[in-house]
Fold each of these.
Amino acid sequence: MPIEQHRIQSLSALEFKARQVVEGFLAGLHKSPFHGFSVEFAEHRAYNQGESTRHMDWKLYARTDKLFVKRYEEETNLRCQLVVDASSSMYYPA
């Protein structure tokens, strides 16, 4: 049963939050608790010998004389389904 447009617009002020955090395999607009390499910087981590120098922070090395790697927030896609009970038993006068 399709929902009327004005009812959909009335839901725009609601904020939905996930009950649990899961790791995704695709990049997207939603932050993940897992660290990866994307656009948004998260923190520095000490460099371990043998790992890639691709994300080395050379400016920090120049200031501290210690090697650090930049870590970034990983982004994932969010897939969800919204079920709305619009039956008369759910009616509550405002």
Amino acid sequence: MALSLLNSLPGKFAPKSPHPPPSRQFAPPLQRSPSHLSVLLREPSRQLPPLRSSSPTPAAEASPSPPSSREEAVSQARSCLGTALRKPLNNSAPLRKLKKQRQPRFRAEIPVVDDSPGSLARLAFDVFSGLAVPRKGGAPAKLLLVWPSTEEEGVALQELNDWGSSTAHAQLDAVASDALSSCDAAVFLAPGRSQMEKLRAAADALDPKPVVLFNPAWSFDEEEGFAAGARGFVGSFNVVYSFTGLEVRGLLSKKKGVLLRCVQGGRFGGESWVLMVEDDAPEGDDFKVVSRLKRRPTIGEVETMLYNLMAANSPVTKSARFLRELVSNVTGRKEKQ
């Protein structure tokens, strides 16, 4: 069995190009030479930490629907972010009291077609130019978009010039203190691991204002290798939206899968991570829930769950090969050989 993490929305949710007429399919991403990391599993090589499933409450039985297009993924993420930001942006508590509270920190991840500056700029434009979270009095909150480099910021300002009057831009390595003080909330777009200290310093300078970490340029699995301070910092961001497209290839068949978290009502403790695969039953829905998890699984844990699922339904269960062609559909980055 092989598990591929896809840069674009898999199969029926492959991303649409913003230019051709609307359709249910997206233009395929540019072909690249993928890096490969193959792991042959005969017996489990290490003991994975236990994953706890959510209780099958009536509220949990209603699974979030995977996005069927790029536009739908953007709409879901925008809705989740807008709901999460609305409460802290309209908190009327005195500043001294707010400083004693935990800073609101949110995280969102959406697949990108590729890792070019233009791809990030278009995705950020689609999500945040239409966010417009209102504050008391009706005026939209002032949003500061913090780009990872001058190249990304330049592309965003040159190619997309209709960001709106309530949106400002800055570059993470040279963000000015007045830009931080004049905004109501900040979004850090695709920061790199090497920028962790600058990201943390900027977030601290914004406290108690809410901050958003959008499409970080590292994978979730990499965070296990972070120093304790950095790991605690990135772990302080509540994931409001995350979508990962999967393709599961067995010896005799292949299926498409989804790992999704969609927090639409601000209930961070009650929303689970949902792993779904295509349903083979003719009368079944497009996707069926394989597992609901209280914490975010690593790719290795997803592989194990899908291996067990495929093995249970396959006559060949002695061995399987997991081929990681892409490290993260969210960041668009690939494993170095």
